[in-house]
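User: I'm designing a mutation panel for histidine kinase and want to avoid disrupting the core. Could you give me a predicted structure to guide residue selection? Please restate the sequence first so the numbering is unambiguous.

Assistant: Good idea. Sequence first, for numbering, then the predicted structure tokens:
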Amino acid sequence: MFFQKRTGIYVFLACRWTLLLIGLLLYVRDHLVPQEFLLMAVLFQTLYSLVHTRQMPRSIGIGATVMDLCFTMYLLNHTGGPSSPFLVYSFTGLVTIKRHVTWRVFYSVILGYLVLIPLLFSSVSSTSMYVYLRKHLDYSVIALIFMLCVGTVHYGVKVVHKEYRKLARIYASSPYAASAKHQGVVPYLESVLKKVLDDRDVILCLTAVREPEKVRGWRQTYFLNYLKQNMPPSHKMYANVPSPTGEVLPFYIETLRDRLGNMYGWLLVNADKEELSFLHHMYIRFLLIRLEADYFVRGELVNAAEKAVAKERDTIAQNIHDGITQELFFISIQLFQLKQSLPAGVRDEILPHVVEIEKKVKESHREMRQFIIELKDEKRKINLHHAIEKLLHRVTEHTEVQPTFEKNGWIAHEQLEIEEAIYHLVEEATNNVIKHAQAKHIDVQIEVTSVQWAITIRDDGMGMNLSEENLQGRYGLGGMENRIKSLNGSLSFHSELGRGTTITAYIPRERRLAYV
């Protein structure tokens, strides 16, 4: 509160000295004032000022205020009562009581004091209070103005305190860090904006969400898709937007841009034109500055992490290339030389075994080189659908299996871990078909919507036993099943002996909601 601060006390005391001097000048102009009276007024005001400029217990503060009121009552009694030039000065003595009591008690004290003055002076003059107040209408006017001033100050203090709490909520670092860690930056900022904008509905739609802020709610997804299809023509505007239920709602829409001027989303506030005040827009600006700073920092951290991972991948790939790959290549050369140097007597018996070993070594060498390519991140430089097409062509090349690939829907930007899970699922399933299924055809279907990914892989091979032991031992998809479940997805198998196998996977695009 203002009067709890030392600066506020100094300002208040300066005002009281001014009112005292004005009262003395007005009174001296029309009356002869004894020197003792002047000295007493100045001395008491000096002592009053010294007391209130010191740290003091509540009881001493209230006692000093009561003594001041008694002294001002004495001044009024000797200078004209309710028509005294010291009347306003006496009223201001009530202000210091607010330092020690609530507003409700403060109003009671003011009303009691304002009633006490005419009551005392009317009883002294042996007249009724009603008649006395009619003779001193100026007192009623001044008292009413004083009450209006107190009420205005009270309302202003409430408004300022409310806005101050909003600003404190915006810039409070500890709650921001804790809430952002547990519920995410976007949900936290939405909740803060809702509170500082007087419980209006707020939606933050980010086009490129940084780690670990990957998850979007269904509302964000809906409005994000709507705004992408109906791009706002201006940076800040009001527009009517259809809600997911079909109801048309008024929204204030602001385009979010980073420090490089790139657009990264929109802010929507459920409000009509002219409904948001200047303070509302100021709070929005403060929070968006914080969001942009957080977005930039997270982007820098993600880029640094990706560079570190890419560097580590390159190091591992280079070590594999310089080590295991070269050894496999050397073994294949040695096997070729061994084939050429086999004695004629044992050639027919040993040659098939050497050829089989050579074939396995070449397969291992080819798989190792593909592993190096994946480590070097080459598959991430192209679209997921294109990468799967190349994968199917590469794996089924030089085999009797004919691949078919169907795709429905397309997403420009998807979480990398979802793309990797889909890619490796198709890769694992296709390799298993080549090695074990004795199939002629493999059909891969991928469908993506705003809700989920659906992946179906079918073959016309000999089928398999779906017991857990046989599934893990023969197809090796247990790890992939765990990986998809970690994305809140599901993986299922359907197979009949002699009629092939179907693998179906569903991965929700919003990881907080499991697929049902």
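For picking mutation sites, this is relevant: The chain has 16 helices and nine strands. The two ends are 56 Å apart (CA to CA).
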